Amino acid sequence: MEPSSIEPFTGLLLTLNSISLPVAIALLVMIVLLISSALISGSEVAFFSIDAKDREILNAEKDPKSLRVLDQLVKPKKLLATILIANNFINIAIVILSTYIINNLISFGPNEEIMNFIITVVIATFLILLVGEVIPKVYATNNSIKLAKFMASPLLVVGKICSPLSNVLVRSTSFIDKRIKKSGTEISVNDLDHALEITDIEGVSDEDKKILEGIVKFGETDVKQIMKSRVDVVAFDEANSFSELLPQIIENGYSRIPIFKESFDNVSGVLYVKDLLPHIDSGEFDWRLLIREPFFVPESKKIDDLLRQFQESKVHMAIVVDEYGGTSGIVTLEDVIEEILGEISDEFDDDDIVYSKIDENNYVFEGKISLVDMYKIMDIEGEIFEDEKGEADTLAGFLIEKSGKIMKKNERIKFGEYLFEVEAADKRRIKQVKVTRKIELDNE
Question: 252 by DSSP, 3-state: which?
Fold first, then answer.
Protein backbone atom coordinates (compact mmCIF):
# COMPACT_ATOMS: atom_id res chain seq x y z
CA MET A 1 0.00 0.00 0.00
CA GLU A 2 1.50 3.30 -1.07
CA PRO A 3 1.26 6.23 1.29
CA SER A 4 -1.31 8.84 0.36
CA SER A 5 -0.38 12.46 0.16
CA ILE A 6 -2.37 15.67 0.50
CA GLU A 7 -1.43 19.30 0.08
CA PRO A 8 -3.26 21.29 2.75
CA PHE A 9 -1.61 24.57 1.82
CA THR A 10 0.88 25.81 -0.75
CA GLY A 11 4.50 24.88 -0.27
CA LEU A 12 3.86 22.09 2.25
CA LEU A 13 3.74 18.43 1.22
CA LEU A 14 2.16 16.30 3.98
CA THR A 15 2.20 12.49 3.67
CA LEU A 16 0.01 10.19 5.82
CA ASN A 17 1.65 6.82 6.41
CA SER A 18 -0.17 3.60 7.17
CA ILE A 19 -0.72 2.67 10.83
CA SER A 20 1.70 -0.03 11.95
CA LEU A 21 1.21 -2.26 15.00
CA PRO A 22 3.66 -0.29 17.22
CA VAL A 23 1.88 2.96 16.31
CA ALA A 24 -1.52 1.42 17.06
CA ILE A 25 -0.25 0.26 20.47
CA ALA A 26 1.21 3.73 21.10
CA LEU A 27 -2.20 5.27 20.25
CA LEU A 28 -3.97 2.99 22.73
CA VAL A 29 -1.40 3.73 25.44
CA MET A 30 -1.78 7.46 24.78
CA ILE A 31 -5.56 7.22 25.18
CA VAL A 32 -5.06 5.43 28.52
CA LEU A 33 -2.55 8.09 29.60
CA LEU A 34 -4.96 10.91 28.67
CA ILE A 35 -7.70 9.29 30.74
CA SER A 36 -5.25 8.86 33.64
CA SER A 37 -4.16 12.49 33.32
CA ALA A 38 -7.80 13.59 33.38
CA LEU A 39 -8.58 11.55 36.49
CA ILE A 40 -5.51 12.72 38.40
CA SER A 41 -6.02 16.38 37.44
CA GLY A 42 -9.67 16.13 38.45
CA SER A 43 -8.76 14.47 41.74
CA GLU A 44 -6.64 17.49 42.69
CA VAL A 45 -9.70 19.75 42.51
CA ALA A 46 -11.97 17.07 44.02
CA PHE A 47 -9.86 16.44 47.13
CA PHE A 48 -8.98 20.06 47.87
CA SER A 49 -12.53 21.38 47.39
CA ILE A 50 -13.87 19.11 50.14
CA ASP A 51 -14.93 21.40 52.97
CA ALA A 52 -15.83 20.75 56.63
CA LYS A 53 -19.44 19.91 55.76
CA ASP A 54 -18.31 17.35 53.15
CA ARG A 55 -15.96 15.80 55.70
CA GLU A 56 -18.86 15.36 58.10
CA ILE A 57 -20.83 13.60 55.34
CA LEU A 58 -17.90 11.30 54.55
CA ASN A 59 -17.31 10.56 58.21
CA ALA A 60 -20.99 9.71 58.73
CA GLU A 61 -21.01 7.27 55.80
CA LYS A 62 -18.29 5.10 57.38
CA ASP A 63 -17.69 3.14 54.17
CA PRO A 64 -14.08 2.20 53.20
CA LYS A 65 -13.88 4.65 50.27
CA SER A 66 -15.01 7.59 52.41
CA LEU A 67 -12.52 6.69 55.13
CA ARG A 68 -9.70 6.44 52.55
CA VAL A 69 -10.55 9.95 51.33
CA LEU A 70 -10.42 11.30 54.90
CA ASP A 71 -7.14 9.47 55.60
CA GLN A 72 -5.46 11.08 52.59
CA LEU A 73 -6.73 14.54 53.53
CA VAL A 74 -4.91 14.20 56.87
CA LYS A 75 -1.63 14.79 54.95
CA PRO A 76 -2.58 17.33 52.26
CA LYS A 77 1.03 18.17 51.32
CA LYS A 78 1.91 14.56 50.58
CA LEU A 79 -1.36 14.10 48.65
CA LEU A 80 -0.67 17.18 46.53
CA ALA A 81 2.93 16.08 45.90
CA THR A 82 1.71 12.63 44.78
CA ILE A 83 -0.84 14.15 42.39
CA LEU A 84 1.66 16.60 40.87
CA ILE A 85 4.38 13.97 40.44
CA ALA A 86 2.02 11.49 38.79
CA ASN A 87 0.45 14.15 36.57
CA ASN A 88 3.82 15.44 35.37
CA PHE A 89 5.15 11.97 34.54
CA ILE A 90 1.97 11.16 32.63
CA ASN A 91 2.07 14.45 30.69
CA ILE A 92 5.73 13.86 29.76
CA ALA A 93 4.80 10.37 28.54
CA ILE A 94 1.95 11.87 26.46
CA VAL A 95 4.35 14.32 24.80
CA ILE A 96 6.87 11.55 24.03
CA LEU A 97 4.19 9.25 22.61
CA SER A 98 2.58 12.03 20.57
CA THR A 99 6.01 12.79 19.05
CA TYR A 100 6.54 9.10 18.23
CA ILE A 101 3.05 8.73 16.69
CA ILE A 102 3.32 11.89 14.56
CA ASN A 103 6.81 10.95 13.37
CA ASN A 104 5.54 7.56 12.21
CA LEU A 105 2.15 8.64 10.86
CA ILE A 106 3.04 11.85 9.06
CA SER A 107 5.89 12.76 6.76
CA PHE A 108 6.51 16.39 5.89
CA GLY A 109 8.14 17.96 2.90
CA PRO A 110 10.46 20.94 3.23
CA ASN A 111 11.31 22.04 6.79
CA GLU A 112 10.21 18.64 8.11
CA GLU A 113 11.84 18.98 11.53
CA ILE A 114 10.35 22.43 12.20
CA MET A 115 6.82 21.46 11.13
CA ASN A 116 7.04 18.18 13.05
CA PHE A 117 7.97 20.08 16.21
CA ILE A 118 5.22 22.71 15.78
CA ILE A 119 2.43 20.18 15.12
CA THR A 120 3.60 17.91 17.93
CA VAL A 121 3.60 20.80 20.42
CA VAL A 122 0.17 22.05 19.27
CA ILE A 123 -1.49 18.61 19.38
CA ALA A 124 0.10 17.56 22.68
CA THR A 125 -0.69 20.88 24.34
CA PHE A 126 -4.28 20.86 23.09
CA LEU A 127 -4.89 17.29 24.29
CA ILE A 128 -3.29 17.85 27.70
CA LEU A 129 -5.14 21.13 28.32
CA LEU A 130 -8.57 20.09 27.10
CA VAL A 131 -8.76 16.39 27.98
CA GLY A 132 -6.25 16.32 30.84
CA GLU A 133 -7.01 19.61 32.60
CA VAL A 134 -10.08 21.68 31.68
CA ILE A 135 -12.79 19.02 31.28
CA PRO A 136 -11.87 16.94 34.39
CA LYS A 137 -11.50 19.99 36.62
CA VAL A 138 -14.88 21.37 35.57
CA TYR A 139 -16.41 17.97 36.30
CA ALA A 140 -14.57 17.67 39.65
CA THR A 141 -15.84 21.07 40.81
CA ASN A 142 -19.43 19.80 40.67
CA ASN A 143 -18.75 16.19 41.75
CA SER A 144 -15.93 16.48 44.28
CA ILE A 145 -17.00 13.74 46.71
CA LYS A 146 -17.90 11.27 43.95
CA LEU A 147 -14.55 11.69 42.14
CA ALA A 148 -12.55 11.71 45.39
CA LYS A 149 -14.07 8.37 46.38
CA PHE A 150 -13.33 6.92 42.94
CA MET A 151 -9.69 8.08 43.01
CA ALA A 152 -8.97 7.34 46.69
CA SER A 153 -7.66 3.79 46.09
CA PRO A 154 -5.64 4.54 42.88
CA LEU A 155 -3.98 7.51 44.55
CA LEU A 156 -3.14 5.36 47.56
CA VAL A 157 -1.25 2.97 45.24
CA VAL A 158 0.37 5.85 43.32
CA GLY A 159 1.32 7.46 46.64
CA LYS A 160 3.23 4.37 47.72
CA ILE A 161 5.04 4.17 44.36
CA CYS A 162 5.94 7.87 44.39
CA SER A 163 6.60 7.95 48.15
CA PRO A 164 10.40 8.46 47.98
CA LEU A 165 10.09 11.41 45.61
CA SER A 166 7.02 12.93 47.29
CA ASN A 167 8.73 12.77 50.70
CA VAL A 168 11.70 14.69 49.29
CA LEU A 169 9.36 17.35 47.87
CA VAL A 170 7.38 17.69 51.12
CA ARG A 171 10.55 18.01 53.22
CA SER A 172 12.03 20.56 50.83
CA THR A 173 9.01 22.81 51.34
CA SER A 174 9.49 22.91 55.13
CA PHE A 175 12.27 25.48 54.71
CA ILE A 176 9.95 27.77 52.72
CA ASP A 177 7.14 27.27 55.24
CA LYS A 178 9.41 28.34 58.09
CA ARG A 179 10.54 31.44 56.24
CA ILE A 180 6.94 32.40 55.45
CA LYS A 181 5.87 31.89 59.07
CA LYS A 182 8.79 33.99 60.33
CA SER A 183 8.18 36.82 57.87
CA GLY A 184 4.41 36.70 58.30
CA THR A 185 2.67 38.79 60.90
CA GLU A 186 0.07 37.29 63.18
CA ILE A 187 -2.76 39.72 63.81
CA SER A 188 -4.88 39.10 66.88
CA VAL A 189 -8.46 40.18 67.42
CA ASN A 190 -7.19 42.80 69.89
CA ASP A 191 -4.87 44.21 67.21
CA LEU A 192 -7.76 44.54 64.77
CA ASP A 193 -9.93 46.14 67.44
CA HIS A 194 -7.18 48.61 68.29
CA ALA A 195 -6.66 49.40 64.58
CA LEU A 196 -10.34 50.28 64.24
CA GLU A 197 -10.10 52.59 67.25
CA ILE A 198 -7.13 54.59 65.98
CA THR A 199 -8.05 54.60 62.28
CA ASP A 200 -10.15 57.40 60.88
CA ILE A 201 -11.77 55.89 57.77
CA GLU A 202 -13.08 58.54 55.42
CA GLY A 203 -16.65 58.12 54.33
CA VAL A 204 -17.40 55.54 57.05
CA SER A 205 -20.16 56.52 59.45
CA ASP A 206 -20.16 55.77 63.19
CA GLU A 207 -22.84 53.15 62.55
CA ASP A 208 -20.64 51.39 59.95
CA LYS A 209 -17.68 51.54 62.31
CA LYS A 210 -19.74 49.89 65.05
CA ILE A 211 -20.68 47.13 62.61
CA LEU A 212 -16.98 46.55 61.86
CA GLU A 213 -16.22 46.42 65.58
CA GLY A 214 -19.08 43.97 66.04
CA ILE A 215 -17.63 41.71 63.34
CA VAL A 216 -14.18 41.80 64.97
CA LYS A 217 -15.57 40.81 68.40
CA PHE A 218 -18.15 38.39 66.99
CA GLY A 219 -16.06 35.25 67.47
CA GLU A 220 -15.22 36.12 71.09
CA THR A 221 -18.82 36.35 72.33
CA ASP A 222 -20.49 33.27 73.73
CA VAL A 223 -24.18 32.37 73.89
CA LYS A 224 -24.49 33.05 77.62
CA GLN A 225 -23.67 36.73 77.06
CA ILE A 226 -26.52 37.38 74.63
CA MET A 227 -29.22 34.87 75.63
CA LYS A 228 -32.55 35.76 77.23
CA SER A 229 -32.49 34.43 80.78
CA ARG A 230 -35.00 31.76 81.79
CA VAL A 231 -36.76 34.16 84.16
CA ASP A 232 -37.70 36.33 81.16
CA VAL A 233 -38.63 33.53 78.78
CA VAL A 234 -42.28 32.96 77.92
CA ALA A 235 -42.85 29.19 77.82
CA PHE A 236 -45.89 26.92 78.20
CA ASP A 237 -46.54 23.57 79.78
CA GLU A 238 -47.71 20.64 77.66
CA ALA A 239 -50.55 20.18 80.15
CA ASN A 240 -52.30 23.35 78.94
CA SER A 241 -55.38 22.88 76.79
CA PHE A 242 -55.71 24.73 73.50
CA SER A 243 -58.34 27.06 74.97
CA GLU A 244 -55.90 27.99 77.77
CA LEU A 245 -52.93 28.29 75.42
CA LEU A 246 -54.42 30.55 72.73
CA PRO A 247 -55.13 33.67 74.87
CA GLN A 248 -51.60 33.53 76.33
CA ILE A 249 -50.03 33.30 72.86
CA ILE A 250 -52.05 36.31 71.68
CA GLU A 251 -51.13 38.28 74.81
CA ASN A 252 -47.37 37.70 74.45
CA GLY A 253 -47.13 38.06 70.68
CA TYR A 254 -44.18 35.71 70.06
CA SER A 255 -43.94 33.59 66.90
CA ARG A 256 -41.94 30.75 68.50
CA ILE A 257 -42.55 29.52 72.03
CA PRO A 258 -40.66 26.84 74.03
CA ILE A 259 -42.85 24.03 75.37
CA PHE A 260 -41.87 22.11 78.49
CA LYS A 261 -43.11 19.09 80.41
CA GLU A 262 -43.68 19.77 84.12
CA SER A 263 -40.57 21.97 84.43
CA PHE A 264 -38.75 24.46 82.18
CA ASP A 265 -35.63 22.33 82.71
CA ASN A 266 -37.39 19.67 80.64
CA VAL A 267 -38.05 21.46 77.32
CA SER A 268 -39.81 19.06 74.97
CA GLY A 269 -39.99 21.22 71.86
CA VAL A 270 -40.80 24.57 70.25
CA LEU A 271 -44.27 25.62 69.09
CA TYR A 272 -44.44 27.74 65.93
CA VAL A 273 -47.52 29.96 66.15
CA LYS A 274 -47.98 29.81 62.36
CA ASP A 275 -48.66 26.06 62.72
CA LEU A 276 -51.72 26.91 64.85
CA LEU A 277 -53.34 29.20 62.25
CA PRO A 278 -55.24 26.45 60.38
CA HIS A 279 -56.72 25.29 63.72
CA ILE A 280 -57.86 28.63 65.17
CA ASP A 281 -61.54 27.85 64.60
CA SER A 282 -61.28 24.12 65.26
CA GLY A 283 -62.08 24.27 68.95
CA GLU A 284 -60.21 21.86 71.19
CA PHE A 285 -57.58 19.70 69.48
CA ASP A 286 -54.26 18.08 70.40
CA TRP A 287 -51.93 21.03 69.71
CA ARG A 288 -48.98 19.00 71.05
CA LEU A 289 -48.80 17.21 67.68
CA LEU A 290 -47.54 20.50 66.20
CA ILE A 291 -44.54 20.79 68.54
CA ARG A 292 -41.22 20.79 66.67
CA GLU A 293 -37.93 19.25 67.78
CA PRO A 294 -35.95 21.63 70.06
CA PHE A 295 -32.43 22.76 69.18
CA PHE A 296 -30.13 22.75 72.24
CA VAL A 297 -26.84 24.63 72.62
CA PRO A 298 -24.47 24.99 75.61
CA GLU A 299 -23.90 28.34 77.32
CA SER A 300 -20.24 28.36 76.28
CA LYS A 301 -20.89 28.06 72.53
CA LYS A 302 -19.43 30.92 70.48
CA ILE A 303 -22.06 32.85 68.54
CA ASP A 304 -20.18 32.63 65.22
CA ASP A 305 -20.52 28.82 65.43
CA LEU A 306 -24.15 29.21 66.48
CA LEU A 307 -24.90 31.40 63.45
CA ARG A 308 -23.43 28.72 61.18
CA GLN A 309 -25.60 26.07 62.86
CA PHE A 310 -28.69 28.25 62.53
CA GLN A 311 -27.99 28.54 58.79
CA GLU A 312 -27.36 24.83 58.30
CA SER A 313 -30.32 23.58 60.36
CA LYS A 314 -32.64 26.40 59.21
CA VAL A 315 -33.92 27.20 62.71
CA HIS A 316 -34.21 30.60 64.40
CA MET A 317 -34.29 29.64 68.08
CA ALA A 318 -32.10 27.54 70.36
CA ILE A 319 -32.63 26.38 73.93
CA VAL A 320 -29.54 27.23 76.03
CA VAL A 321 -28.55 24.61 78.61
CA ASP A 322 -26.02 24.78 81.43
CA GLU A 323 -23.35 22.25 82.34
CA TYR A 324 -25.87 20.22 84.37
CA GLY A 325 -28.41 19.99 81.55
CA GLY A 326 -30.80 22.54 83.07
CA THR A 327 -32.34 25.25 80.89
CA SER A 328 -30.57 28.62 81.21
CA GLY A 329 -32.66 30.50 78.66
CA ILE A 330 -33.11 30.91 74.92
CA VAL A 331 -31.18 32.56 72.10
CA THR A 332 -32.57 33.56 68.72
CA LEU A 333 -31.14 34.38 65.31
CA GLU A 334 -32.10 38.01 65.92
CA ASP A 335 -29.97 38.06 69.10
CA VAL A 336 -26.96 36.83 67.13
CA ILE A 337 -27.37 39.27 64.23
CA GLU A 338 -27.80 42.18 66.67
CA GLU A 339 -24.23 41.57 67.86
CA ILE A 340 -23.07 42.78 64.44
CA LEU A 341 -25.75 45.20 63.30
CA GLY A 342 -26.81 46.58 66.66
CA GLU A 343 -30.30 46.61 68.12
CA ILE A 344 -33.03 45.54 65.69
CA SER A 345 -36.35 47.07 66.72
CA ASP A 346 -39.78 45.82 65.66
CA GLU A 347 -43.36 46.60 66.60
CA PHE A 348 -43.14 44.35 69.67
CA ASP A 349 -40.01 45.90 71.15
CA ASP A 350 -40.28 48.42 73.97
CA ASP A 351 -37.19 50.62 74.06
CA ASP A 352 -37.91 51.90 77.60
CA ILE A 353 -38.22 48.51 79.20
CA VAL A 354 -34.47 47.79 79.53
CA TYR A 355 -32.95 51.15 80.44
CA SER A 356 -33.44 54.89 80.63
CA LYS A 357 -30.83 57.58 80.04
CA ILE A 358 -30.89 60.42 82.55
CA ASP A 359 -27.91 62.31 81.08
CA GLU A 360 -24.53 61.54 79.52
CA ASN A 361 -23.18 60.01 82.74
CA ASN A 362 -26.27 58.55 84.42
CA TYR A 363 -28.33 55.57 83.35
CA VAL A 364 -30.96 53.38 84.98
CA PHE A 365 -30.83 49.73 83.91
CA GLU A 366 -32.86 46.69 84.73
CA GLY A 367 -30.72 44.24 86.68
CA LYS A 368 -31.27 41.52 84.09
CA ILE A 369 -29.62 43.50 81.29
CA SER A 370 -26.55 41.75 79.92
CA LEU A 371 -23.17 43.39 80.46
CA VAL A 372 -22.61 43.36 76.70
CA ASP A 373 -25.79 45.42 76.14
CA MET A 374 -24.77 47.81 78.92
CA TYR A 375 -21.41 48.40 77.18
CA LYS A 376 -23.20 49.22 73.93
CA ILE A 377 -25.70 51.59 75.51
CA MET A 378 -23.07 53.46 77.52
CA ASP A 379 -20.61 53.29 74.60
CA ILE A 380 -17.77 51.86 76.68
CA GLU A 381 -15.22 49.10 76.04
CA GLY A 382 -16.07 47.14 79.16
CA GLU A 383 -12.66 45.48 79.48
CA ILE A 384 -12.40 46.21 83.22
CA PHE A 385 -15.81 44.57 83.74
CA GLU A 386 -14.86 41.52 81.68
CA ASP A 387 -11.70 41.05 83.74
CA GLU A 388 -13.63 41.12 87.03
CA LYS A 389 -17.07 39.69 86.21
CA GLY A 390 -16.27 36.05 87.04
CA GLU A 391 -19.21 33.89 85.93
CA ALA A 392 -21.62 36.83 85.73
CA ASP A 393 -23.11 37.96 82.43
CA THR A 394 -25.78 40.40 83.65
CA LEU A 395 -25.49 43.67 85.55
CA ALA A 396 -27.23 42.16 88.60
CA GLY A 397 -24.90 39.15 88.46
CA PHE A 398 -21.87 41.45 88.32
CA LEU A 399 -23.00 43.37 91.42
CA ILE A 400 -23.62 40.12 93.32
CA GLU A 401 -20.17 38.91 92.24
CA LYS A 402 -18.48 42.09 93.53
CA SER A 403 -20.50 42.53 96.72
CA GLY A 404 -20.81 38.85 97.64
CA LYS A 405 -24.54 39.19 98.34
CA ILE A 406 -27.88 40.24 96.87
CA MET A 407 -27.73 43.99 97.40
CA LYS A 408 -30.72 45.81 98.88
CA LYS A 409 -32.41 49.01 97.77
CA ASN A 410 -30.23 52.17 98.09
CA GLU A 411 -27.05 50.14 98.62
CA ARG A 412 -24.08 51.36 96.60
CA ILE A 413 -20.86 49.91 95.27
CA LYS A 414 -17.94 51.62 93.49
CA PHE A 415 -16.00 50.00 90.71
CA GLY A 416 -13.32 51.93 88.86
CA GLU A 417 -14.86 55.22 87.77
CA TYR A 418 -18.38 53.84 88.06
CA LEU A 419 -20.90 54.03 90.89
CA PHE A 420 -23.73 51.49 91.06
CA GLU A 421 -26.80 52.20 93.20
CA VAL A 422 -29.61 49.65 93.61
CA GLU A 423 -32.97 51.34 93.06
CA ALA A 424 -35.20 48.25 93.28
CA ALA A 425 -34.61 44.76 94.66
CA ASP A 426 -36.25 41.94 96.57
CA LYS A 427 -34.93 38.96 98.53
CA ARG A 428 -34.19 36.98 95.36
CA ARG A 429 -32.77 39.44 92.84
CA ILE A 430 -31.65 42.95 92.00
CA LYS A 431 -34.31 44.50 89.77
CA GLN A 432 -33.11 48.00 88.91
CA VAL A 433 -29.73 49.74 89.10
CA LYS A 434 -28.59 53.32 88.58
CA VAL A 435 -25.13 53.53 86.97
CA THR A 436 -23.07 56.73 87.19
CA ARG A 437 -19.78 57.08 85.35
CA LYS A 438 -16.95 59.64 85.49
CA ILE A 439 -17.65 60.16 89.18
CA GLU A 440 -15.42 62.28 91.35
CA LEU A 441 -14.29 59.67 93.86
CA ASP A 442 -12.92 62.28 96.23
CA ASN A 443 -16.37 63.81 96.62
CA GLU A 444 -18.13 60.52 97.41
Answer: helix
CB atoms within 10 A of CB 127: 20
Query: What's the rounded mean pLDDT across residues 103-119?
Result: 67
Q: Running DSSP on this structure, what letter comes out for residue 131?
A: I
The C-alpha atoms of residue 58 and residue 197 are separated, in whole angstroms, by: 44
Q: Does domain 355-443 have CATH number 3.30.565.10?
A: no
Alpha-carbon dihedral 236, 238, 240, 246, rounded to 10 degrees = 60
Residue type, 207: E
> According to DSSP H, which parts of 227-330 are helical?
242-252, 303-313
User: Would you state the pLDDT for residue 406?
Assistant: 87
How far out from the chain centre does Cα 302 lie? 12
Cα-to-chain-centroid distance, residue 78: 26
| Stretch(es) of the chain classified as CATH 3.30.465.10 | 355-443
pTM of the predicted structure, to 2 decimals: 0.44
Read off the pLDDT band of 210 (50, 70, 90).
low
Question: Any idea what the Cα angle at residue 255 is, between residues 252 and 259, rounded to 5°?
Answer: 80
Q: Contact, 96 vs 173, CB < 8 A?
A: no
* Spatial separation of the C-alpha atoms in residues 106 and 239, rounded to whole Å: 89
Q: Compare 186 and 224 and report the one with higher pLDDT.
A: 224
CATH architecture of 220-341: Roll (3.10)
106-108 sheet: strands from edge to edge: 4-6, 14-16, 106-108
- Is residue 108 over pLDDT 70? no
User: Lowest-confidence range among 201-205, 229-233, 416-420?
Assistant: 201-205
**C-beta neighbour count of 375 within 10 angstroms:** 15
170 three-class SS = helix
Of the chain, the percentage scoring pLDDT greater than 70 comes to 78
CATH 3.10.580.10 domain span(s) along the chain: 220-341
The whole-number pLDDT of residue 226 equals 84
Reading across the β-sheet that carries 263-272, which strands appear in turn?
Answer: 236-237, 256-261, 263-272
